[in-house]
Automatic annotation (TrEMBL):
It comes from Bellilinea caldifistulae. PANTHER family: TYPE I RESTRICTION ENZYME MJAVIII SPECIFICITY SUBUNIT (PTHR30408:SF12), TYPE-1 RESTRICTION ENZYME ECOKI SPECIFICITY PROTEIN (PTHR30408). SUPFAM superfamilies: DNA methylase specificity domain. GO terms for biological process: DNA restriction-modification system. This is Type I restriction modification DNA specificity domain-containing protein. Residues 189-216 form a coiled coil.
Amino acid sequence: MQQDINRLMESALAEVFPSQEQPMPEGWQWKRLGDECKTTSGGTPRRSTSDYFGGSIPWVKSGELNDGIITSSEETITEQGLENSNAKIFPEGTLLMAMYGATVGKLGILGIKAATNQAICAIFTPEHILNKFLFWYLRFARNLIIVQSFGGAQPNISQVVIKNLFVPLPYLHDHDRSLAEQRRIVAYLESIQQEVQEAQKLIEADLHAIEQLEQSILAAAFRGEL
């Protein structure tokens, strides 16, 4: 059942986005991400300097990316920590991708202004590309990105691979039509995501009910009531 639910989201993504082996929908174009978007990474203040941490600046680590909106961080840094490291404050709406670590390939969108560590690639979308549209495409292409980066070695994604990824974009000759199509696709995928989340909640509730039933049966058997 859980596998079927996971496949539902993957099927929806494959329905919306073409792979590079498939013909493009009429009016769509492949564009290199690095030609359309600016990218950078963050940094980590020196841990041995306590004055660099515990300030008012949210500082997001790659392990906190969970394919959702980032509205808080586990740690914060100070202005001094920011100035004495490669960390920089990114604006709300910045698209993030984990380049290495346990969550490699995971995505996030900043719902707040925040800095990040160096294991995160920050992607800034121009006005003709919705950050959520690119978010969903990167989620669709995640396995491809990871395969291209790994090469059988350490599981790291490089900014070079991210920049060289080709992204399908609709109707670039017509700005309003392009954004309208991107919004339509985002709304469709978010509706599927909501259905998936609701189905997962039902499964978790059923599993909890089954676990409680098993415990009550075992307790009854122990008391000799069965």
